[in-house]
TrEMBL record:
Lineage: Bacteria, Pseudomonadati, Bacteroidota, Cytophagia, Cytophagales
Protein name per its UniProtKB record: Nucleoside-diphosphate kinase
Residue ranges annotated for the Nucleoside diphosphate kinase-like domain, each copy included: 1-135
Keywords annotated in UniProt: ATP-binding, Kinase, Nucleotide-binding, Phosphoprotein, Transferase
UniProt cofactor(s): Mg(2+)
Length: 137
């Protein structure tokens, strides 16, 4: 098995959808390795999304991602990164397949309910951003 990293974003936490989303994740066969509820500062959101620093939406993204509590998690499954991206659906919920987490819960291309790592390498970096080694069993 391998691992991916996710966080339920502020819009979905605020709307009370964390439980429904976690249920979908577990029903899809992912084991929750680590989980907590926390809030990012704009600076820390900027570090997390540093890869997007040159994008026009970067400042809005940092503001949004620090606007409320989030639920970061490390997840484990066969083919975790790709299968999780399938489960969450396209970045823009207008393009997300029926039954995906973003189709069900996302509000817009920005407030899109959930994050999923895009590679094994980034999954490890992102998991380590939120969780210490002793939390990752
Ligand atoms: P993540 O799982 O959150 O990384 O989303 P993604 O991999 O599907 O998309 P990407 O990494 O390209 O973008 C990161 C996040 O920036 C998205 O999830 C959105 O919250 C936001 N974002 C992406 N594109 C746009 C855009 O065109 N406008 C705005 N306002 N936000 C965007
Ligand atoms: Mg991404």
């Amino acid at each position: 098995t391998n691992r991916t990293f996710t966080m339920i974003k502020p819009d979905a936490v605020q709307d009370g959808n964390s439980g429904s989303i976690i249920k979908m994740i577990e029903e899809a066969g992912f084991r929750i390795v680590a989980l907590k509820k926390t809030q990012l500062t704009p600076e820390r959101a900027g570090q997390f999304y540093a890869v997007h620093a040159e994008r026009p939406f970067y400042n809005d993204l940092c503001k949004y991602m620090s606007s409320g509590q989030i639920v970061p998690m490390i997840l484990e499954k066969e083919n975790a990164v790709a299968d999780f991206r399938t489960l969450i659906g396209a970045t823009n919920p207008a393009n997300a397949d029926e039954g995906t987490i973003r189709k069900l819960f996302a509000k817009s291309i920005e407030a899109n309910a959930i994050h999923g790592s895009d590679s094994d390498e980034n999954a490890e970096i992102e998991g380590n951003f939120f969780f210490g080694g002793l939390e990752q069993f």
